[in-house]
Amino acid sequence: SHRNAVARYASSKEIASILDVMQHSKSLNEAILKEKMVVDVGGGYGDLMYAVKRSMPAVGKCYCLDLPDVIDDAFLAMNEDSEKERLATLEPGDMFDPSTIPPCDLIVTKHVLCDFSDEDVVLALQSFR
Question: How many angstroms separate the Cα of 59 from the Cα of each of 37, 100, 110, 123?
Fold first, then answer.
């Protein structure tokens, strides 16, 4: 979709900055996240999780959670890229349904919550518990 294309473009410009902040953070660096599970909610095609795992290999399992149609498109775009399959798991789900969010130590959201009403953001955050 157009929305996903715009998000991928914006994300590609931000990923290096996000990784730099994480690597220099006292609470999100590789040593702290060693073997931790990370989920990018609304993560589109998984670009951020692939980059996190490439730059910080000690991080545990990385998931990209998005709506089933987005994940279907992400699998098609992956084009049997075995490196990406090894780096992160594409997970169909819904941020409003906690049963679809993989158990994890850290949830990342980027360009997602701003699209919803305050009430829906509260519901999403409650499902992240």
Answer: 7, 21, 19, 28
